[in-house]
Amino acid sequence: MINKLTLKEISSVARIHKEELSGFLPELGEEFLQAFYKNSLNIPEMFTFIDCENDHICGFATGIISPKGLYKKIIIQNKILFIILILRHLITHPFQIVKMVKILTYPGFSDDIPELLTIAIPKSEQGRGRGKKLFKQIANNFQKKGINKFRISVYDRLPSNGFYKRIGCKLENSFEFLDEKMNYYSYNI
Fold first, then answer.
1. How far is CA 186 from the centre of its chain?
2. d(Cα 112, Cα 65) in Å, to the nearest integer?
3. Residues 2-188, CATH architecture
4. Are 145 and 178 contacting, i.e. CB atoms less than 8 angstroms apart?
5. Lower Cβ count inside 10 Å, N or C end of the chain?
6. Residue 124: CB partners within 8 Å, gap ≥ 6?
7. How deeply is 112 buried, as exposed, middle or buried, from its count of CB atoms within 10 A (0-12, 13-18, 19+)?
8. What mean pLDDT comes out for the span 178-183?
9. Span 121-136, pLDDT tens digits
């Protein structure tokens, strides 16, 4: 069953995000991700859906109508907590300061193009159509809000590129970010 994310599922979503997704946010840890998703509930243009079966979260997907300034919108709600979490990470990983600055200035979030931010399915639940079901829920939610096209950004090295192509997403362009190739896909509803 697909439902909107509520406070009671935050810990599970953060755990799945950390375990199943690569990138800088998972590196910041579960506590950071918990704060991120908790604060996301207060951003009207951001939405996360979870796929549940018998009170077990089998995956989630997040979309945003207006990603411009996303990190600022998240962090400003609890600046002190985020500063502590980020500083704690940078003290133990000082070489990541440059990476942190680049993440916070991610070029995709300066655009105001609706975006599917995340789909994450635990390995034990993959191959059961859950990703496709969550993708359709995100697309339906965008459509209800009058949006007929959205984008998805994916590291080129990830197998999810094949998933997006199979479900009808079109590769629009590629670019370098944090010394890796990223692909922008678009989906017309």
1. 16
2. 8
3. 3-Layer(aba) Sandwich (3.40)
4. no
5. N
6. none
7. exposed
8. 84
9. 999 999 999 999 999 9
